Amino acid sequence: MKSELEKMIAGELYFSSNPELSSMRHSSREKMHLFNNETDARKRSELLKNWFGKTGENIYIEPTFSLDYGFNIFVGENFYANFNCTILDTCPVTFGNNVMIAPNVSLYTATHPLDPVERNSGWEYGKPITIGNNVWIGGSSVIGPGVTLGDNVVVGMGSVVTKSFPDNVVIAGNPARVIRHIELSDSNS
C-alpha cells in the first residue's frame, strides 16, 4: 500500500492533511523563513542546494520565494528566479539549463478534482511540470499542472500556460498560444 507521500509524488489522489506531509510542509516553511531572511546570496544558494532534489552549481533565487516541499524541485545549471517566485511542488518540477524566471512567476503542480464532493472531501493530486533548456518565463506568468515547455521557449509577460509547447516558440496570452517561432542561427543550435 502506498503512503500519501508516494501517491502525491506519483500524481495520484492523496490527502494533504496527512501528518507526514503536514510535517514536511512545516519544515519547508522554516527553511523558507531562513532563505527569505538571508541577505548573503552565497548562503541562499547553499540553502537551495541542500533543500532541492537536485541543482546545478550556479543557482540564484531572489527572496521572497515560496514552495510546498522543495525536494520535488530539480534545477539545471545557470538557474535564475527573480522576486516573488512560487513553486507548488507536490509533483516534480524540473528545470533544464539556462532558465530565467522574471518577477512574480508561479508554477503550480497542485490541482484538485473537478467533482465538488471529491474536492470537498480533501482529495488532491498533482501533475509534474517540465521546463526545457534556455527558457525565459516573463513576469507575472503562471505555469499550470502538467505543462511541459520545450527548449528555447520564451513565455510572454502575464501569460497563463495551461498546455505544453514544443521547442523554439514564443508563447503569450491567457491561455497562452504560439505567437512566434524562433529561428536559431547555426551558431546557437
Automatic annotation (TrEMBL):
The keyword Transferase applies. Residues 5-57 form the Maltose/galactoside acetyltransferase domain. GO terms for molecular function: galactoside O-acetyltransferase activity. The keyword Acyltransferase applies. CDD domains: LbH_MAT_GAT. Its EC number is 2.3.1.-. Keywords: Acyltransferase, Repeat, Transferase. Belongs to the transferase hexapeptide repeat family. This is Acetyltransferase. It comes from Trichococcus shcherbakoviae subsp. psychrophilus.
